[in-house]
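Need tokens for this chain, all 281 residues.
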Amino acid sequence: MIAAEATAAVLRDLFDLRGTRAVVTGAASGLGLAFSEILADCGAAVMMADIRGDDELASAAAPLAARGCEVRTCTCDVAHEGSVGRLFEEARSAMGGVDVVFANAGITGGPGFLTPEGQLDTIDLEQWQRVIDVDMTGVMLTLRAAARLMKPQRRGRIVVTASIAGLAPEPFVGYSYVCAKAAVVNLVHQAALELAPHQVTVNAIAPGPFRTNIAGGRLHDEEAAKRWAATVPLGRMGQPSEIKGLALFLASPASAFMTGAVVPIDGGSVVAGKPIMTADR
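Here are the structure tokens for all 281 residues:
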């Protein structure tokens, strides 16, 4: 009994988020929903934001509210400065401040160069710009809004969803996504240095292939899943629930002395490396 009580006390000190106020973008499904779930289940008040609108957000938040979690929702397009500003003003007004931010919202850049439509000479500039606006500028706008609230209070944790596609070439995904995620990695490094004197940490999660609704749900297709699984040493794609432990660690007191890190969670893909593939292989 004494050991059990001691264990519980240690876990509370490290991972208890009661009293924490959090914002999660891209929260209606996939990794964003997983982040929202683990934060709320560990006691945080969570503002769930997504571009998909009130109905989908309400549906995503309902199970959390039903089990007694404190959750709110807000429609937000992270690519628009005013929309991000309204999100954080609503979070500040409703919760009294913001302590944890997950800058997670993102969209696909389409197929990679293994298919003709994903090759360099067929890049569509309109699609390119939309991905850059959401996956890079959207992260910057979210970090900027978070910093404006966190710097004066001299505390905060920011967690960015990067990608292993930002760490190494990834033939399966489009140029715009690879470039945006690579930029996000450097944004995390830069912001971590700036905000460290204010006791605000900035870290990134770099997922490998997870079964989410990105790319129009293409990753739920069994053939696509098999192709991705073949690149992963553990031999399968990840499930959103498997990212919750890392998310909790980065949001909690357990990571207090950690900033500027980009942590792959990818079944071993980065350490294994990937062969450079061509369209005819």
